[in-house]
Design a protein that fits this description.
It is a single chain. The protein is 41% helix and 16% strand. The protein has 268 residues and is of the alpha/beta class. The chain has a single domain, classed as Metal-dependent hydrolases (TIM Barrel, Alpha-Beta Barrel), CATH 3.20.20. It has an 8-stranded parallel β-sheet. The longest helix is centred in the middle third of the chain and has 17 residues, at 107-123. The radius of gyration is 17 Å and the shape is globular. This is DNAase. A divalent metal cation 1 binds at residues 6, 8, 95, 204. It comes from Caldimonas caldifontis.
Length: 268
């Protein structure tokens, strides 16, 4: 069975055919999706979808959206984590982190919410799902100060040294569609050379489409779409298998075991 460790199934891009998206994924052996929240507005939504389809979920505030959150957002998140503490499908605090790529975002606000959510994860004894975009060192600095039960560095694209630092802190590294691009040399090198027991697979659907779904700006303007979905995970995994010289079966077994090791046995 494949595990997609990062899928935004609640996204508006899936409103027209969400049931079919789930059915396609399950038909290809993608039996579990991890559904991370991104704001107070979708905490209940991801939980509901996880229970409806037999998946798992995470509750958190995404760094790109924290400036728009109400002043009591962290209290709302704490209340939700407390209310659902006994829910076996609640597996992490996420998606949280820092984004140093998008211009104009307030880094101080991001940092405050990130640290507060690490503290919540520690209080509720949950791992975290991290948004890492040109922010690995800043994330690691706080992880060394506020120790949590590991987690996943989603869509990892740092250096080998940063990768090892996350691994040393109990993290797995998420690889997905970006790995399928032949010009993504750094990501493909990491996917090939990092310890296999440190890797998990993800789609980030509907985002980060693999190479075969990519559309240029001109194509998108002409109406062609590039929506990613969890059914793409086995084909993405094929790239990892080729890079490492492994069978698909070996990659499925290893990455699924890694996901369960960090997020728990609910990822059945």
């Amino acid at each position: 069975m494949w595990i997609d460790t990062h899928c935004h199934l609640d996204a508006a891009e899936f409103d027209a055919d969400r049931e079919a998206v789930v059915a396609r994924a399950k038909a290809l052996g993608v039996g579990c999706l991890v559904l991370p929240a991104v704001s107070t507005a979708n905490l209940d939504t991801v939980r509901g979808l996880a229970h409806t389809h037999g998946f798992v979920y995470a509750l958190g505030l995404h760094p790109m959206y924290v400036e728009a959150e109400p002043a009591d957002a962290l209290e709302t998140l704490r209340d939700a984590l407390a209310r659902h503490r006994g829910d076996p499908r609640l597996v992490a605090v996420g998606e949280i982190g820092l984004d140093h790529f998008v211009p104009g975002l307030d880094r101080a606000v991001q940092e405050r919410h990130y640290v507060a959510q690490l503290e919540l994860a520690r209080a509720f004894e949950l791992p975290v799902i991290l948004h890492v975009r040109r922010s690995a060192d800043a994330l690691l600095k706080q992880l060394r100060r506020v120790r949590v039960k590991g987690g996943i560095a989603h869509a990892f694209n740092g250096s080998a040294q940063q990768a090892q630092a996350f691994i040393d802190l109990g993290f797995k590294l998420g690889f997905g569609g970006a790995m399928t691009f032949e010009r993504a040399l750094q990501i493909r090198t990491l996917a090939r050379e990092l310890p296999l027991d440190a890797l998990v697979l993800e789609t980030d659907a509907p985002d980060i489409p693999p190479q075969w779904l990519y559309r240029t700006a001109e194509q998108r303007a002409a109406g062609q779409t590039s929506r990613n979905e969890p059914a793409e995970l086995p084909r993405i995994a094929h790239t990892l298998a080729e890079l490492r010289g492994l069978s698909l079966e070996a990659v499925a077994a290893a990455t699924s075991a890694n996901a369960r090791a960090v997020l728990g046995p609910a990822l059945a």
